[in-house]
Fold:
Amino acid sequence: MTSEPIELHAVGNVRSPYKEKGDAPRQGRFSDTISEIVVDERYRPALYQIEGQKHLWVLCWFDRADRAVLRAIPPGTVSEKGVFAIRSPDRPNPVSLCLVDLLEVKDSVLKVRGLDAFDGTPVIDIKVYSAEIDGVRQG
Amino acid sequence: MTSEPIELHAVGNVRSPYKEKGDAPRQGRFSDTISEIVVDERYRPALYQIEGQKHLWVLCWFDRADRAVLRAIPPGTVSEKGVFAIRSPDRPNPVSLCLVDLLEVKDSVLKVRGLDAFDGTPVIDIKVYSAEIDGVRQG
Structure:
């Protein structure tokens, strides 16, 4: 049933003021920190026309996360939950999901606000945010 | 600068009425189709307490996508954009991002509404949706 290993390649890396644990906010969304996403030159065509976008999803590979953790107690709470029911960076495939504001594009570097990733973190994907697709339906 | 290959393992698979191209909607969000996520037994502890959640992000590995595509013309438009500026399934690391409504949890099977994935698609991560983290800030 479960398939073979899946191989990803970083498309870039984060340049961030967060160097080690304790520096990064619990969720980037709650901070105004500016980071940069340095996209690898070979993927530069994938940035074409991105400067017209205001909000992006950035998917990173949290290489410092603990992949063996299946349950955890979220910060500010007292009861344990499965990692699929929370936002802990520790999970079997530590792919992070972070909504950022795009401030500037220069060559293959994106300047963004709100990214919660350590300096050097591999970026695996970038997608435009869509209020229609990414919002909870009413009713 | 770019790091070594990253290895992921599917945590489950999609059971869906979409068997081939043409079956799936452009974005699952626009349909009311019911799918199931069959989580591998070894990851079942990661579902603990998930039944209390209404909305989940499901990250899939779109194994039928074309990873060489860097620019594309989004459906309903006429101008080409880089794949990081759109939501095309074709991209260097075809990790899909889909917001679903959680309808039911039975053992290690989640019944969900709104998933745009073919039958058998590997699921790589599940995260709870948070209006606070995942919404665009006003102002």
About this structure: The longest strand of chain A covers residues 95-106. Chain A touches chain B through 66 residues (CB under 8 Å).
